Amino acid sequence: MANENSAPPRAYRAPCPGCGAPVDFQSAQSIHAVCGYCQSTVVRSGDKLARIGKMAELFDDHSLLQLQASGVWNGQPFTLVGRLQYKYGEGTWTEWHAVLTDGSSAFLSEDNGAYVFGKAEAVQPNLPEAGRFRVGATTVINGKTFSVASNQDVGLMSAQGELPRLPVLGAMHAMVELRSPDGEVLSLDYSAQPPAVSRGLAVQLEDLKLTGLRDESVKDEKGGRAFSCPNCGASLKALLATTQSMTCGSCNSIIDLSKGIGGEIKHAVQDEPIQPIIPLGTRGQLQGVQWQVVGFQHRTGYDPQDSDEHFGWDEYLLYNARKGFTFLVDSSEGWSVVKPVTGAPVVAAGGNSAQYLGTRYQLKESYNAETSYVVGEFYWQVSRGQKTSNRDYTSGNNLLSMEQSPNELTWSVGSKIDSNAVAKAFNLEGKKELLARSDAGPISVAPDVSNKLVFVVFIAMILIALMMERCSSCDPRVENCASSGRTSGGSFGGFSGGGGHK
User: Fold this and answer.
1) Residue 176 to residues 80, 122, 319, 477: CA-CA distances in angstroms?
2) Same domain flag for 39 and 142
3) Are 246 and 268 in contact (CB under 8 A)?
4) pTM assigned to the model
5) Is 77 in the same domain as 170?
């Protein structure tokens, strides 16, 4: 526990040069602030404040966090005193500036539906320029090996409160994220030279013992942010605080909420709706946690060497107010529960195996994937046609999956579960036949090359029989035909956990 007798850092207050309202600085490391009354951007020099511009209005991210919320990290109390809102090619995210009782600064950042708590640190001199960091490659920083997880051009959309640094509003700059096998996140911010660097670890908000949160933060069916569908005008509500995209229940359009309610709202029309087997809003107890189904997407995988060979699977996005998000994945080879992870598994040369947290996984399949239909709410900016390059690894019933786009790489880890457990968890005993999959025993890897011809003939016969059986009974408006009767004999596909990095 922190020393209760430790004195808090001396606060500094001065009148805003724009409107005269008081502007507070709780950290000696904070040199910028945004006036809460007139949005003037001010810089501190000694005991004087100078106005250097005006900050854009905050977009409504509807976060449960707010200024002056406090908590405990690594045994030391902290207070949130500033906020930065960033945009990038596929959405937005928020970083909160925290001041600890020793006067040092830290940042609480959104990360894949969860959070990372990090502190600034000095790194080796002469860091490479951002373009040298290739997504998926490894690099060594201060003697430690990291994997390049993200390399994005980002821009500051808005800010609030006091801040140790403040990028130029709207100016795009590179942001590189590196991840280590033990779960560390190293962020390189190229808005200045030398780049600002912070090192952090994943955290659960419940572990930070936060107080002073917004009362209306955690939404349920009684709350939500109301707005009209930009395509058909239907009245809609975004129920979750983290929602950056959702679909309209009337016209099935995908709506981009990454700029907040009241900001520019874009949409994309979807045809041929797919009905999830597990309805949106369903609640259930799975693996000891109470989850709610808040999103659904159908995805298609195909061999990069032959796009005619394809298969499909479904991903249900599950939400718990304390645990965040996880994915329930439905493929023809079984159900699985997977969650994006902060760490970076160590991949062997050639990519045929990977090791994560002491477990070695063997490559099951490599394939390309595309999102073909979405329903519900998502913590990232989802859209039809999003493409990734995927690798699936297995160790018995344990699963490890990699998804890579040009600017980002995400890992997910999880395990297979029996279809009866899914039916029981979500009270769907009446749909057991629809939920049944080939989920008995561990996942098999590809057969030995010497048996390849026999294997291919055998699989072809099975697929022909399945297709003849399914064509007469499968209704794509009711169930996912592609994921139940795939045309690919070897690709497992579908335990990747979707989603964007931020």
Assistant:
1) 24, 16, 28, 42
2) yes
3) no
4) 0.71
5) yes
Phi, psi of 356 (to 5 degrees): -145, 125
Last residue of a domain, one of 403, 424, 448: 448
Are 16 and 148 found together in one domain? yes
Q: What is the pLDDT of residue 60?
A: 62
Shared-domain flag, residues 304 and 204? no
CA triple 263-266-267, angle to 5 deg: 145
Strands, E assignment, 280-358: 283-286, 289-303, 306-320, 324-331, 334-340, 346-347, 353-356
Question: Residue 377 corresponds to which tokens in the numbers above?
Answer: 């709410």
238 within a domain of the structure (yes/no): no
Q: Same domain for 23 and 161?
A: yes
Number of domains in the chain: 2
Please identify, among 208, 241, 260, the residue that sits at the C-terminal boundary of a domain: 208
Q: Please tell me the predicted confidence (pLDDT) of residue 19.
A: 83
Expressed as residue numbers, the domain containing 302 is: 272-448
61 with 172, same domain: the answer is yes
Q: Cα separations (Å) of 266 from 228, 244, 255?
A: 12, 11, 6
Query: How much is the pLDDT for 175?
Result: 94
What is the signed CA dihedral for 243, 244, 249, 251, rounded to 10 degrees?
Answer: 170
Regions of the chain with pLDDT less than 70: 1-11, 28, 46-47, 59-62, 112-113, 215-224, 241-242, 259-268, 272, 307, 438-502
Q: Does residue 236 lie within any of the structural domains?
A: no
Residue 393 burial (CB < 10 Å; 0-12/13-18/19+)?
buried
CB 478 within 8 A of CB 314: no
Cis peptide before 194 (omega within 30 of 0): yes
Do 185 and 286 fall within a single domain?
no
> What pLDDT does 464 receive?
40
Residue 492 belongs to some domain of the structure = no
Same domain, 299 and 181: no
Hey, which bits of 357-501 come out as E strands?
Answer: 359-378, 387-395, 398-405, 408-417
Q: Which residues contact 205 (CB under 8 A, 6 or more apart)?
A: 64, 115, 322
CA–CA distance, 89 with 380 (Å, rounded to integer): 11
β strands within 121-208, DSSP E:
138-141, 144-163, 172-179, 184-189, 196-203
pLDDT tens digits, 162-183: 998 888 888 999 999 999 999 8
Dihedral sign from CA coordinates of 209, 415, 178, 389? negative
Half-sphere exposure of 211 (CA within 13 A, CB side): 5
- State both tokens at 201: 């670890």
> Dihedral, CA atoms, 148, 149, 152, 158, nearest 10 degrees?
-120
User: Quick one: pLDDT at residue 133?
Assistant: 95
